[in-house]
Write a structure and sequence with these properties.
The chain has 302 residues and is mostly helical. It has 8 helices and 7 strands. The protein has one domain.
Length: 302
């Protein structure tokens, strides 16, 4: 135990009357703020998306991303759903990031088409929102203790001592486990560095989001071998890994086909969309954006 990390933090940060404010929720708020200002906003505003549109898009995307994340977790853990309260009990952990990706990207596509905004630019901004925010959100999982691997005596293994720690069935206080949530956070930071490198190459809109979906799926397929808080479903794999394989085999080729039919017809990015554009440029107001100035092509097949 002297060679491991001991975590005794109470998952409840403080109380407001009878309302418990959890570190998990606080880290989500911090993640959203950082993801917007450090991830999505610099990318989108420098590529002609007005800040007014972007703020509204972000609000709706966060809402439906959270709904998607929770519903996806509920489907993965039907054995834990004993009442209606359990369906919404996010304070006990339980947000599946694939659900957030599905809900968030669908929101960007639907609202982007409705407001006649460049869809692939929005999706790229969504990718940067995700890779900046997710590692911060994982800090909440680390405090909770709800995403862990197998027992370990590695120097960075984590043992929980607070009786309110949200450990999954079969996990015990005072026993050191692999910090699977920390591994996922580090994996996402690696993806962030790769995406920044991709963007610096002046690629066309859409390449960033395609890279993100592929890289995230590979990371989940590999890292989930270290995550022992979910059961094996089939072929020695967990549900998250099966989802990652389905994404790589089915979703990625479809996305590439759609991208090639729309944004990917030209071999290089147009000058206004190159990474050298200043992120401090004054954005257009919604009234100044006309349909002729925005990409109206859908990103889904007719």
């Amino acid at each position: 135990m002297l060679a491991t990390i001991t975590i005794g933090i109470d998952p409840i940060a403080f109380w407001i009357g009878s309302l418990a404010v959890h570190w998990y929720g606080i880290m989500y708020v911090v993640a959203f703020v950082a993801a917007y200002y450090l991830g999505a906003r610099p990318h989108a505003v420098s590529r002609g998306i007005s800040q007014d549109y972007l703020e509204r898009l972000t609000g709706w995307t966060i809402l439906f991303g959270l709904i998607g994340a929770r519903l996806y977790y509920d489907v993965q853990n039907l054995d834990l759903m004993h009442s209606v309260v359990d369906v919404f009990a996010v304070w006990n952990g339980g947000m599946a990031f694939y659900g957030a990706i599905i809900g968030g990207l669908a929101t960007l596509v639907i609202l982007g088409r409705r407001w006649k905004l460049p869809i692939w630019v929005l999706l790229d901004a969504g990718a940067f929102f995700a890779v900046v925010g997710q590692p911060i959100g994982r800090i909440g999982n680390i405090i909770n203790g709800d995403i862990l691997g197998g027992q370990s005596n590695l120097p960075w293994a984590t043992a929980y001592t607070n009786h309110d720690a949200i450990l999954q069935a079969g996990y015990r206080l005072g026993v050191a486990y692999q910090p699977a949530a920390a591994y996922e956070a580090l994996g996402t930071l690696v993806i962030l560095l790769i995406l920044l490198g991709v963007r610096r190459r002046g690629v066309r809109p859409g390449v960033v989001i395609l890279s993100y979906v592929g890289l995230y799926s590979v990371s989940q397929l590999l890292l989930d071998f270290l995550r022992q808080t979910e059961p094996v479903i089939a072929f020695g794999l967990k549900e998250l890994q099966l989802t990652a394989i389905a994404t790589l085999v089915l979703v990625m080729p479809l996305l590439v086909i759609i991208w090639r039919r729309t944004e990917g017809r030209s071999g290089r990015a147009p000058e206004p969309l190159l990474d050298g554009a200043s992120s401090d440029a004054e954005p257009e107001s919604p009234a100044e954006v006309s349909p002729s100035d925005a990409e109206a092509e859908p990103v889904t097949p007719d």
